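Retro notes, structure queue

What went well: the backlog is down to a handful. What didn't: a couple of records were mislabeled last round, so from now on we paste the full input next to the output in the thread. Example, using PD-(D/E)XK motif protein from Limnobacter humi:
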Amino acid sequence: MAKLIDEIQLAWNSIQTAQGTSGWNTVAVLPRHPGRFRAGRNFPDLCEALLAGFRTSVISRNEKFPEGLGFHVTRVNSEQDGFVWLALTRSPNGNLELFSAMVSDIVHAILDTGSGDHSLELRAFLGRIRAWQEFMRKGAVPLSAENEVGLVGELTVLEKMLEVGMAPEAAIRAWSGPLHGLRDFELGFGAIEVKTTVATAGLVAKIGSLEQLDDTNCSPLFLGAVKYALTESGQTLPEKISAIRAQLESNPITLSEFDDRVLAAGYSPAHSPQYHRRFSLREIAMLEVGENFPRLMLGNVKPGVISARYEINLEPLLSQDVGLTTALKKLEMI
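Corresponding output:
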């Protein structure tokens, strides 16, 4: 990865010293993929950019391109050899080091598809950019202790889904929490919301809205309760991510989509030394949310109440565990 970004940075530096007054000045990079990637600057702004070429037929004229803190994506008004060029450009106030890491990661996401299918490569390109968009929105800093626990819990449920036979492609695409999903996993007409604790006693779930446990238009709906202990023999967050990645290696597209979600959730491999806590699973339960489940939603609060955050003590409800296999069968996922 270092050699790749070094090549791109060298190209950026050469362009900076070149003569130019307006328009794009670009240099081809990655000679093993001739004509597909170019490092560039758009004069007179001179901000660094990566230009990626895709066949004209795979990009819709109405495609909405992501724009985030420190970067933007635009269509370059130039076609060559049947390619449309998309430019990922650093904003003037964008951090160059972070942008360089982003560019390197995105190029690898495209190359790792190994397909030569431009539509799949475009999906990988835009998917990884949107993940970086969300990562930057979260501050591009290591996860808080609470968010680290939350991500471990979601990954645990994902791991268990794979263990009981859910198709990896479906499981990864169902994981919507990192991508602004109302609930952590959206499965068909239903969903699973995951709540995780490392507390030595009790299991209190923080509910973020009146909609989160409302099954009016989302049924069946399950709350996954995950209890962990912090031990010396447990698994760190980076180790858990690596273990799941190993299961997905045979499907580069699904692996790329998993990486997108992990990044969007706020995890970057660059921050892995920060995550030294080790988690040992104590209990996991799937609780079906129904009429008698303790919850607040728009249908059972007084008129005038339009939003709420509240907490539920799940400990007395753990005996009602239906198990993940039953939950996924009810959701028609296995």
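Agreed that this is the format going forward. Reviewer comment attached to the example: The CA atoms of residues 162 and 168 lie 6 Å apart.
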